[in-house]
From TrEMBL, chains A, B:
Gene3D superfamilies the UniProt entry points to: 3.30.420.40, Winged helix-like DNA-binding domain superfamily/Winged helix DNA-binding domain
Protein name: MarR family transcriptional regulator
InterPro entries reported for this sequence: ATPase_NBD, ROK, WH-like_DNA-bd_sf, WH_DNA-bd_sf
Similarity section: Belongs to the ROK (NagC/XylR) family.
Domain of life: Bacteria
Length: 396, 396
DNA sequence: AGAGTTAGTTTCGTAGTAGAATTTATGTCT
DNA sequence: AGACATAAATTCTACTACGAAACTAACTCT
């Protein structure tokens, strides 16, 4: 069924204008040649010329004609064949590795996870290797691997620091590449999720947006002028250190009411568990708050207000067109929606435009999907180092 | 002495690559052709071709050879002739108009101010007209006028709202253009100062920076990816509404401890004057604090801490390479430096890079210079509407 | 003096573009 | 049904701007 061999170039030897055509189609869905010409400010003639080789190589395909046009010749829609290439994304936490196999459009085809019994890089890499080979079985045309971690990554190759794994300067990219035979890129987990929203999610048609994740920590990502704001400080607790409530509980560093101490799953879990003198799961905390339990209600309401404040700060200081809320603990935003919205309104100028909030549903595999998106980006932009050409080592 | 007549095209009919060469020279000082080729990723041959007509037209001039080169043929430096064109910038406040005449590089050549006896747009425009004709006397080659106001400006032509002038939807650009015979651009005052720092100030070699102004209000500007972040919300009190100290005094809208209530000249002036039961000027407030007056010290210390918090928030949420502090009240940052820096450190991750703070000296005419920079930008980018070709009306 | 190095110019082949003319494929109107 | 309008897509030609390479120029170092 599949025609192109995994080693065929496809996205590799493209000229700049040809790549821009392919990219426009990749993230703005099926488009006609005429529409592409308008978007890229090219003549119709140029578009025919540029699209011809892309169609010949199978990178683009014609997918029927436009339905909703009124008069004149119907436009033939061009699209990428999303299943022409596959990608694997892996997210590492302190005790598990989550992996997904995705198409070129970051649609998840299969997923898998495995526990990490140790933080030893060799052990982690071999676990990653097993996950990858399991998933690649579904798609021999897999061309790249992305790995994300909570922490700092340098140059898409090295994990500079990862507190949850107690890692410093681990050359994860090279190690994973050697173990899997796939070119591998490494990135911070929040950056990866931000790019996933940017290219294939709620941030797709948005030249400026911010993303806040609630989970084990508070994550923060920013896209301005259609480009991620990258800083060496990403991966340190930027948003997590922001004080949101001077009367709130202290975090590990003694900051009272900072985001990490008010909004994270562990913080809410701990506050409610202590208050009720029993272990209460995060979801149970939220359920209790909904049912009016006084302890849980107070914790969750305080958290909702703190989240509202954080959102207002981000809104005022980065002027985003949209703020995306996501992460495995984001249910907080629904449960405490009222106080959150009230707090946002309180800290915004009445004349300012209302903030467009976008609460995403979130499954833990989204973290892994983000990692796959980093791999997709590097692949289609031609930034992928040609990988160590070693074949995947036979498992074990 | 001057060769080009004011109406000669010069920056008008440039092709894109030619303009990029001229711009690179404009804001990165004298550069050799070889250096330009490297910076713009062009071949040496292309640079000869591109620079030739720019030199012929007088837009660029050769200004001697490079001093500090070690070996090989010495490089001939190209530069713009900054006095080949002049610009006028005007800043409007509620009771005065400040105006400056600048060169192409935004160097102030002359300045002047006039009181505004009324907020009637016609009166204001005629005052602007008088200031302009006074300044243009020094430089008949003046090619554009920029006007800045505290408030919102749409499309560089209309003042959408300006609280200090009680204006709504005043077509200031057209009116000032008619009155002066110069093409006129209108912009928010903080945006204008931000662009001045961006092109010709501390932000010149910085692809991402934030700017905070302390004055009658608190202003906030942001440049990311070497481009100003523009939003319709600019001109509403974005930064001013941020709550910085829950125990602080309330602002006019009842927000306790918000930036507008803690950091502005009027706020500090009022707090100290009330505390000491006599009128105390802003500078006197700061002097008293330095000399240990308990009332002034407390107000100024609280303000310094609040400023530190604002800076930390901006630093954490926009990850700037630099934060520029400026405005007519910026002496606060020096007087309360210690508490300010302490507060910044408290709200930043220890592993995060230290924030590069740049406190600018500020003269009120800087506001007007910013307006001139907007005019310069529009002129050199070719975005200037060709102006109503009416000659300046003979004054009176 | 001659080798080495960098700056700038000239020439020339080529890639990529726009634009006009043409063909194809629908609609609407009478 | 046929004329006409509209728009998409293709083909062809001319042009432009670029880089590569060869060359000249100016200077340093040995």
């Amino acid at each position: 069924m599949r025609t192109a061999s995994p080693s065929s170039p496809l996205w590799n030897g493209l000229t700049d204008p040809a790549r821009s055509v392919a990219l426009e189609v990749l993230y703005h869905g099926p488009l006609s040649r005429a529409e592409l010409a308008r978007r890229l400010s090219l003549s119709a003639g140029s578009l025919t010329r540029l699209s011809k080789p892309l169609l010949d190589s199978g990178l683009l395909i014609e997918v029927g004609t436009q339905l909703d046009n009124r008069i004149g010749r119907p436009a033939v829609l061009l699209d990428v064949e999303p299943t022409s290439r596959h990608f694997v994304g892996v997210k590492l936490t302190g005790d598990e590795a989550h992996a997904v196999l995705t198409t070129l459009r970051a649609e998840v085809v299969a997923s898998q996870r495995a526990p990490l019994h140790s933080h030893d890089p060799d052990h982690v890499v071999s676990t990653v290797g097993e996950l990858v080979s399991g998933l690649v079985g579904h798609a021999p045309d897999t061309v790249a691997l992305g790995v994300s971690v909570g922490g700092r990554a340098d140059d898409n190759t090295t994990v500079t620091s990862a507190p949850f794994l107690d890692w410093t300067d681990v050359p994860l990219g090279k190690m994973a590449s050697d173990a899997t035979g796939l070119p591998c890129v490494v990135e911070n987990d929040v950056v990866a999720v931000t790019e996933a929203e940017h290219w294939f999610g709620a941030g797709r048609d948005c030249e400026r947006f911010a993303l806040i994740t609630i989970g084990a920590g508070v994550g923060y990502g920013l896209v301005v002028h259609d480009q991620l704001v990258g800083s060496p400080d990403i991966g340190t607790g930027l948003a997590g250190h922001i004080s949101l409530d001077p009367g709130g509980p202290p975090c590990g560093l003694g900051h009272k009411g900072c985001a990490a101490a008010m909004l994270t799953i562990p913080a809410i879990h701990a506050a409610v568990s202590v208050g009720l003198q029993r272990e209460v799961s995060y979801d149970e905390c939220l359920d209790l708050a909904l049912r009016g339990d006084p302890v849980a209600s107070r914790v969750v309401t305080d958290a909702g207000r703190a989240l509202g404040r954080l959102i207002a700060l981000v809104g005022n200081l980065t002027m985003p067109h949209k703020i995306i809320l996501t992460g495995d603990g984001i249910r907080l935003a629904s449960v405490a929606e009222d106080v959150m919205l009230q707090r946002i309104a309180d800290e915004r100028d009445a004349a300012a435009s209302t903030l467009d909030l976008d609460v995403q549903t979130f499954d833990f595999f989204e973290w892994a999907r983000g990692a796959a998106v980093i791999a997709i980006q590097k692949y289609v932009l031609g930034h992928l180092s040609p990988a160590t050409s070693s074949p995947p080592s036979p498992s074990r």
